[in-house]
């Protein structure tokens, strides 16, 4: 999977740079393949659960970690909440920094794109405001989890209360592109690579 490939690339890069690299993994499922490629690993409770933060801070102290690399969108959202805590300020957090939260929220990212004059599909505050075919999803959801194509306001209303922070948007049909952008530490674009998204995984 992607995590196994990432770990392998990190080890290759560390070897070329003659750096000592020690990787500690955390997971909620013990059968996750990437754990077997770590130097050590720990089982933790789900992200945002009552014990999750306590467990992570204990691991950071005991393993004497220098950096944290988030594995998914939930980790990114979690880091936005804890990054100002004293222990976390002593770490290198390998994400996009405090502005990361902007792109975890579909509402906030749509506002940002509109502000810089990029077109975005119409957004409806409530089902009654919408019309035609629409996309209903969660504001901070990811992948294809809890996403519904609805064809009128009544259909959107049926799913509305099932979602956490529902987000309703005009449905746009066509080829979907993902654009990967690599930048320098001062946010100058180094390279960008558009690719057609042929499949959306549930997660």
Number of strands: 10
Query: Order of strands in the sheet with the most strands?
Result: 5-8-6-7
Using the alpha-carbon principal axes, give the shape: globular
Which spans of ≥5 residues are poorly predicted at pLDDT below 50? none
Describe the protein in words.
The strands form 4 sheets. A 4-stranded antiparallel sheet has the order 5-8-6-7, with helices on one face. It has a two-stranded parallel ribbon with strand order 1-2. The longest helix is centred in the N-terminal third of the chain and has 15 residues, at 2-16. 29% of the residues lie in helices and 21% in strands. The chain is an alpha/beta fold and 203 residues long. The model has no long low-confidence stretch (mean pLDDT 90). It has helices at 2-16, 52-63, 73-82, 86-89, 106-115, 153-160, and strands spanning 24-27, 40-43, 67-68, 92-93, 123-124, 134-138, 148-150, 166-170, 177-183, 189-196. The radius of gyration is 20 Å and the shape is globular.
Task: Write out key terms for the chains shown.
203 residues; 10 strands; 6 helices; four-stranded antiparallel sheet
Concise structural overview:
The protein is an alpha/beta fold and 203 residues long.
Topology at a glance:
Layout: H1 2-16, E1 24-27, E2 40-43, H2 52-63, E3 67-68, H3 73-82, H4 86-89, E4 92-93, H5 106-115, E5 123-124, E6 134-138, E7 148-150, H6 153-160, E8 166-170, E9 177-183, E10 189-196
């Amino acid at each position: 999977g992607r995590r196994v490939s990432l770990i392998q690339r990190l080890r290759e890069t560390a070897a070329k740079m003659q750096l000592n690299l020690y990787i500690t993994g955390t997971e909620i499922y013990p059968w996750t393949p990437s754990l077997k490629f770590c130097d050590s690993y720990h089982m933790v409770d789900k992200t945002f659960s009552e014990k999750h933060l306590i467990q992570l801070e204990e691991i950071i102290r005991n393993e004497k970690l220098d950096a944290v690399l988030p594995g998914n969108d939930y980790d990114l959202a979690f880091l936005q909440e804890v990054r100002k805590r004293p222990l976390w300020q002593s770490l290198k957090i390998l994400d996009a920094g405090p502005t990361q939260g902007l792109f975890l929220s579909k509402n906030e990212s749509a506002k940002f794109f509109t502000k810089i004059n990029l077109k975005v599909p119409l957004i409806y505050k409530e089902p009654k405001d919408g019309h035609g075919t629409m996309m209903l999803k969660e504001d901070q959801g990811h992948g294809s989890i809890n996403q519904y194509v609805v064809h009128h306001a009544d259909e959107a209303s049926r799913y509305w209360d099932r979602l956490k922070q529902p987000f309703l948007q005009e449905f746009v049909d066509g080829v979907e592109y993902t654009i990967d952008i690599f930048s320098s530490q001062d946010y100058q674009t180094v390279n960008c690579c558009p690719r057609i998204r042929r499949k959306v995984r549930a997660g």
